[in-house]
Design a protein that fits this description.
Helices cover about 85% and strands about 0% of the residues. The protein has about 70 residues and is an all-alpha fold.
Length: about 70
Amino acid sequence: MQRPNDASALHKKAASDHAAAAKHHIKAAESHDHNKSNDAKSSGKSAMDCSNTAHKTSKAACNSSDM
C-alpha cells in the first residue's frame, strides 16, 4: 500500500513534467513566429519528449491515488 505522501509527490512531479512540456511548446510557437523552423522542430521534439514523460508520470500519479 502506498503512502499518501507518495501519491502527492507523484502528482507534483507530473505537474512539473507538464510545465516543462508547456515551456517547450511555447518556445516552438515563438520560433515559428520568427520563421525559425529548425529551432521550432527542435523545441517541438523536446516538447514531445517531455509530454511523453509527463503522461507516464500522470498515469502513475493517478494509479497511486486509487488506493
